[in-house]
Design brief:
The complex is a heterodimer. By secondary structure, chain A is α/β, with parallel strands linked by helices. Chain A has a single domain (about 10-15, about 20-100, about 110-255), classed as P-loop containing nucleotide triphosphate hydrolases (Rossmann fold). Chain A is built from 11 helices and 9 strands. A 9-stranded mixed β-sheet of chain A has the order 3-2-4-5-1-6-7-8-9, sandwiched between helices. In chain A, helix 9 packs parallel to helix 11. Chain A is globular, with a radius of gyration of 18 Å. By secondary structure, chain B is of the alpha/beta class. Chain B has 11 helices and 14 strands. Chain B has helices at about 1-20, 40-45, 65-80, 110-125, 130-145, 160-165, 180-190, 220-235, 255-265, 280-285, 340-350; strands spanning about 25-30, 35, 50, 55-60, 85-90, 105, 150-155, 170, 205-210, 240-245, 265-270, 290-300, 315-320, 325-330. Chain B has a 9-stranded mixed β-sheet, sandwiched between helices. Chain B is globular and about 55 Å long. Classes of the chains: A alpha/beta, B alpha/beta.
Chain lengths: ~260, ~350
């Protein structure tokens, strides 16, 4: 039922046209935000969308670096999706990286050990899934900049990890959805880390505040850049979309600038 | 009119019924969060109730003025008055000496007079015939909130017995080679307040002053400090405590400064006003009473995805009678007779600080 109510974000991501195969399958999605406007809500939307889509095989592996499960559980419950129940069904795996992981402390100063074991954990989880779920896995990372902090600044280790995860997308058709903060890198001279990540990305979502400041009924604007969208019939050339949004407890309103009365 | 009166009173009764089973210093907030007071009644109001339990508050200092200390002192005093344990870390050699400068809650007599003051002040804004209802309203609120948040008199030092006991833990970060010692102190401190649902036997406050200041050796260990903040934040999430960190943003590289800001649940910045800025003085009413500006950049979003949009993000810090901290929306000097505060604010703050979005 909820799939019928398409919003602009779903359309821009191509989620409306087919649910099988899952349109984001094999894609890497990067969400960027800044201090003024948080992009977390896009992550919540995609999480809900993935878990409540028509195909019952979709599985989510969530690597939480910034918030505990209780936070996400409350938000997603308001969106109409029970994470605890999904976890019991074996469709949602929550890896709490807040406390569990400080790789450099565990494995000396390398930082790599932690991420490697994390990767193995992900792969074990995928291997343990039933056969027809294996190709419908979504890996979500809720804050990539905190991964860098966990790796003690060695962004190469984070990049390695991302490359490993990227192989999963090409081998098994997993999708990878990550959130990062854009404004951290804008002041750097050569943001090699960010450029490398962007090279992997198929879909790019950017949340920004309005140029005129915050307003009560427009919380910011989203720019969606979809590189892999061309093959879908119909609106094929429409690769960049830009619209405003307003975040509510149980939904997010998307609208084109100036179309709200 | 009678109807209004009863509605008001029943409303206040509800509040006390909800907060009654808790500790005096804790108030229920939305989405299963709990608030503790910042020690400044106006700041509590601005943030929608106070600091959420389990959140990390960061204050960006003005490099040239100690305005962040005003917020820090009131935060610490509020905790001590409510008998909450405190961990205080600072780059000073003897952090315990700082406790002598904490403000004392004003006595009831002072409070009365202050109440009276605000009544009179507010009274100017509303039609005189409603005045008596309005003042009654204020009194009600004061009564129910008395325990949650005190007014602090900056000129009276806190009585010694509040901080002489075991409840205050002081750490000097001046000579520590890395944040590990501070981290361990925080961890042992927070271990006293594990969070188990609905059971508030105790809650604690952590105040870290000028983390990363040049006088401590930590200032060139960016990643170490970042991972300290990260792990402090994750410890806070599972503890009944609130932490404030103040830091000088100008001493960090821009990209690290952004990283710090992203870590914060509540992000504030303070700024002194330049002396005798004639232009600004003409623009803003009450300029001569102001000591600085407070900017609210980020408000905690725990258990919810909805951002809280404030009408204004810049507030003036005033010292009423040189005793009490008062935060007010900026008001542009009346030109056209319209009272729109948000309009005035955005105009005012673009004149004074970089965060202004509109440039008039």
């Amino acid at each position: 039922m909820e799939n019928r109510a398409l919003n602009l974000l779903d359309e821009a991501l191509g989620l409306g046209y087919q649910t099988d195969p899952w349109p984001l399958r094999g894609k890497v999605v990067l969400i960027e935000d800044c201090v003024e406007t948080s992009g977390c809500f896009v992550l919540h939307q995609l999480l809900k969308r993935t878990l409540s889509s028509q195909s019952p095989n979709n599985t989510v592996i969530f690597l939480a670096f910034s918030h505990p499960l209780s936070h996400y559980d409350r938000i997603l419950r308001k969106l109409g999706c029970n994470l605890v129940a999904q976890r019991e069904n074996g469709r949602f795996f929550f890896f709490d990286m807040l406390k569990l992981l400080c790789p450099d402390e565990k494995e000396g100063r390398t930082g790599k050990g932690g991420f490697i074991s994390l990767y193995w954990k992900i792969q074990d989880t995928i291997c343990a899934l039933p056969e027809n779920n294996k190709n419908h896995v979504t890996i979500m990372i809720d804050d990539m900049s905190l991964m860098e902090v966990a790796a003690h600044g060695s962004s190469d280790h984070v990049l390695d990890f991302m490359h490993y995860c990227h192989t999963l997308t090409s081998e098994l058709g997993c999708s990878l959805i990550t959130l990062n903060h854009e404004d951290i890198y804008t002041s750097m001279e050569r943001p090699a880390f960010m450029l490398q990540i962007k090279y992997l990305v198929d879909v790019f979502i950017k949340a920004e505040p309005l140029a005129t400041g915050l307003a009560a009924d427009v919380h910011g604007q989203l720019t969606v850049l979809n590189w892999g969208f061309c093959n879908v019939k119909g609106s094929s050339n429409n690769k960049i979309t830009n619209f405003h949004f307003k975040v509510k407890e149980n939904s997010v309103e998307y609208f084109y600038p100036g179309t709200r009365t | 009119m009678a109807a209004t009166k009863t509605r008001i009173s029943s409303f206040s009764r509800n509040i006390s019924a909800v907060s009654a089973p808790q500790l005096p210093g804790i108030k229920c907030g939305p989405n299963g969060t709990f608030f503790v007071s910042s020690g400044i009644p106006d700041l509590d109001k601005i943030l929608g109730g106070g600091f959420a339990l389990g959140s990390l508050v960061m204050i960006m200092e003005d490099a040239e003025a100690p305005h962040h200390m005003l917020l820090l002192r009131n935060f610490m005093s509020q905790g001590l008055v409510q008998n909450q344990p405190l961990l205080y870390a600072s780059p000073a050699k003897d952090p315990r000496g700082f406790l002598g400068t904490l403000p004392c809650p004003s006595s009831s007599k002072d409070e009365k007079s202050r109440n009276h003051d605000t009544e009179q002040e507010k009274g100017l804004r509303i039609a005189w015939q409603y005045k008596k209802y309005f003042s009654e309203n204020i009194d009600d609120h004061k009564d129910s909130k008395q325990e949650f948040c005190n007014d602090f008199d900056l000129r009276k030092p806190l009585e010694r017995h509040f901080y002489s006991g075991q409840r205050v833990d002081c750490v000097s970060i001046k000579d520590s080679p890395n944040p590990a010692t501070l981290h361990d102190r925080c961890a042992t401190f927070l271990a006293q307040f594990p969070r188990n649902d609905g059971n508030f036997s105790c809650m604690g406050r952590i105040a870290i002053q000028s983390l990363c200041a040049p006088q401590c050796e930590l200032s060139n260990m960016d990643w170490d400090i970042l991972s300290f903040i990260r792990s402090l934040k994750s410890m806070l999430r599972s503890a009944n405590a609130v932490a404030i960190i103040t830091f000088p943003p100008s001493l960090l590289s821009p990209s690290f400064c952004k990283r710090w800001q992203h870590m914060a649940d509540v992000l504030l910045s303070v700024k002194a006003i330049p002396d005798e800025d004639k232009e600004l003085g003409k623009l803003l009413t009450g300029y001569q009473d102001m000591v600085g500006f407070l900017n609210v950049h980020k408000i905690a979003r725990i258990n919810t995805q909805v951002p809280m949009i404030l009408e204004a993000t810049t507030f003036s810090i005033k010292l009423q009678k040189r005793r009490f901290i008062v935060l007010e929306c900026l008001n542009q000097a009346p030109i056209d007779g319209s009272s729109g505060t948000s309009y005035g604010t955005s105009g005012g703050c673009s004149g004074s600080s970089k965060s202004g979005a509109l440039d008039f």
